């Protein structure tokens, strides 16, 4: 497909720092305090806003830590824990590392996983949870994956825009 697909994507306003933090005090896997961080911005300076959702998990000030400071025990993409501790964020976990021009390495990653036969990874790369294994297998036989993926990208990005605005971010 030679058409520039980005012309049909929703317009967005570049922002340098747009984030939200949710603090949860609850026991989970040896930690008793968690900080869930969401952001949708161009903090890395690559020319488009990217969404991420991560969590830092701590053992709060206790005798385990020197000088009585919090001890961080886990950090990063803890999506299973986020879904358990803050279920209202679960619908947004699929958008982790999606930017205003699409999921990270959208066509390349999805095509790679399709060719490897790993349909779960292909679904995740394409943010396409409803695609069945049978449908994904047929994509390689009938048309080029790139054509199909680029055809669905504008609708996917409208859903992404809606969800970012629902979270309170400026799109």
Structure notes:
It is a single chain. The chain is α+β, with helices and mostly antiparallel strands and 171 residues long. The protein folds into 2 domains: 16-100; 101-171, no CATH class. 34% of the residues lie in helices and 20% in strands. It is built from 5 helices and 6 strands; from the N terminus they run ββββαββαααα. The protein has helices at residues 79-85, 106-116, 119-126, 133-142, 145-166; strands spanning 19-24, 33-41, 50-59, 71-76, 98-99, 102-103. The strands form 2 sheets. The protein has a 4-stranded antiparallel sheet, covered by helices on one side. A hairpin with an 8-residue loop joins strand 1 (19-24) and strand 2 (33-41). Helix 2 (106-116) runs antiparallel to helix 3 and helix 2 (106-116) packs across helix 5. The longest helix has 22 residues, at 145-166. The two termini are 27 Å apart. The mean pLDDT is 91.
């Amino acid at each position: 497909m030679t058409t520039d697909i980005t012309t049909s994507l929703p317009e967005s306003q570049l922002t340098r720092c747009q984030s939200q933090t949710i603090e949860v005090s609850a026991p989970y896997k040896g930690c008793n305090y968690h900080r869930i961080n969401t952001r949708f911005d161009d903090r890395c300076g690559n020319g488009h806003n990217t969404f991420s959702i991560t969590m830092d998990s701590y053992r709060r000030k206790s005798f385990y830590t020197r000088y009585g400071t919090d001890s961080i025990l886990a950090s990063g993409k803890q999506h299973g824990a986020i879904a358990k501790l803050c279920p209202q964020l679960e619908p947004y976990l699929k958008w982790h590392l999606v930017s205003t021009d699409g999921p990270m390495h959208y066509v390349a990653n999805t095509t790679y996983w399709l060719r490897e036969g790993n349909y779960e990874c292909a679904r995740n790369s394409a943010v396409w949870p409803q695609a069945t294994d049978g449908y994904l297998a047929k994509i390689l036989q009938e048309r080029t994956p790139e054509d199909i993926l680029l055809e669905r990208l504008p609708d996917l990005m409208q859903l992404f825009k809606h969800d970012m605005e629902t979270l309170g971010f400026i799109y």
